[in-house]
Specification:
Number of domains: 2
Strand content: 15-25%
Number of helices: 11
CATH class of the largest domain: Alpha Beta
Shape: globular
CATH topology of the largest domain: Rossmann fold
Strand order of the largest sheet: 3-2-1-4-5-6-11
Bound molecules: ligand G4F
Radius of gyration: 19 Å
CATH superfamily of the largest domain: NAD(P)-binding Rossmann-like Domain
Oligomer: single chain
Length: 325
């Protein structure tokens, strides 16, 4: 039986990945913060349905000793490093935590794996934010990086570190350069979940407006459960490489709004209020991914359309709210 260790197991991607690996017969270990264990009903909500099947370890990913002890204890065959400060807006306000969480944590994990489990295969979660203000569109694995946020910079620094461990220490480290990916488990601060949950509230008479920033911003939005399939596939290849994972289709926040409100038969224009506080100082313009390499090498492809995904998010939020009313 293969043993996998997931950092960020209680997040959107971590929870879908844990489900996938359990289905494939893995022993699945995850690292969570002590606060999360103490407030499990909120902070472990994405994995509560799996909790009896998982082996959770309390630790802080940016603390070398903590990670070292967990890797020594688990001795994983595969390690998926998903934990990160990932909300781009917050990263404008708290640069030090972002750098520490995203860079130091990657170093702690790679260094521990190198010392203790050098045959372990590592997945590093890179991001389209590393391309930032990209000079070419769509972007692929050869497109030059040009990050515009501290989040993008921290991910890019960690990505280079991961490559360095691959090239100099011969560790099997594969990196996914993932574009936005959403689902009913997306954090509430991200625009898609903010919209789906507010549409659900409006439909149930619990809200009457939605405040947003730039609704003409464009994103390449995919479906999170599809993206964890790609992560796993990357670690099953003969050689560790980097892969862009994206749909290759751009939609605006306005498109998302229109689809989401149409699920409940409403016109979004009647509910939207612009809040300048939600505009970004360094907005990335039209990041769109070319995932030909992943499609060709991994046999990967998206399974759900944008429209189907938006519908699932809105309907799930309505169901959650009705259940908790
Ligand atoms: O949902 P968002 O906050 O996601 P963003 O910044 O694109 O980042 C996500 O995807 C990246 C690429 O995979 C990841 F690296 C990152 O960790 C994260 O998962 O914002 C999407 C767009 C932006 O253009 C933003 O300006 O929506 C626009 N937007 C407009 N009004 C808003 C709002 N975003 C948020 N969060 N809240 C608003 O009210």
């Amino acid at each position: 039986m293969k043993r996998a260790l997931i950092t960020g197991i209680n997040g959107q991607d971590g929870s879908y990945l844990a489900e996938l690996l359990l289905t494939l017969g893995y022993e699945v270990h995850g690292i969570v913060r002590r606060e999360a264990i103490e407030d499990a009903s909120h902070r472990l909500v994405n994995i509560l349905h799996l909790i009896d099947k998982l082996k959770l370890h309390v630790g802080a990913v940016d603390n070398h000793l903590s990670i070292y002890k967990i890797v020594a204890n688990v001795r994983p065959d595969e390690c998926y490093h998903l934990a990160a400060s990932s909300f781009v807006s917050y990263t404008f306000d708290d640069e030090a935590s972002v750098l520490s969480n995203n860079f130091t944590a990657t170093h702690a994990l790679l260094a521990s794996v190198k010392e203790l489990s050098p045959h372990c295969r590592v997945y590093f979660a890179g991001s389209s934010e590393m391309f930032g203000n990209a000079r070419f569109s769509p972007q692929n694995e050869s497109t030059p990086f040009n990050p515009r946020s501290v989040y993008g910079i921290s991910k890019l620094a960690a990505f280079h570190l991961a490559r360095n461990y691959r090239e100099h220490h011969k560790l099997f480290v594969a990196a996914g350069i993932l574009y936005n990916h959403e689902s009913p488990r997306r954090g509430y601060q991200f625009v898609t979940r903010k919209i789906s949950t507010t549409v659900a509230k409006i439909h149930l008479g619990l809200a009457d407006r939605l405040e947003l920033g730039n609704i003409d911003a464009l994103r390449d939005w995919g479906y999170a459960p599809d993206y964890v399939v790609a992560m796993h596939a990357m670690l099953q290849q003969e050689k560790p490489e980097d892969y862009v994972i994206a749909t290759g289709v751009l939609h605006s926040v306005r498109d998302f709004l229109s689809e989401a409100f149409s699920v409940v038969g409403l016109d979004y224009e009647a509910y939207i209020h612009t809040n300048l506080d939600h505009f970004r100082p360094g907005e990335v313009v039209s990041l769109c991914g070319d995932s030909s390499k992943a499609r060709h090498t991994l046999g990967w492809q998206p399974t759900k359309s944008f429209k189907q995904m938006v519908k699932e998010m809105v309907l799930t939020d309505i169901e959650h709210l009705e259940r908790n009313q």
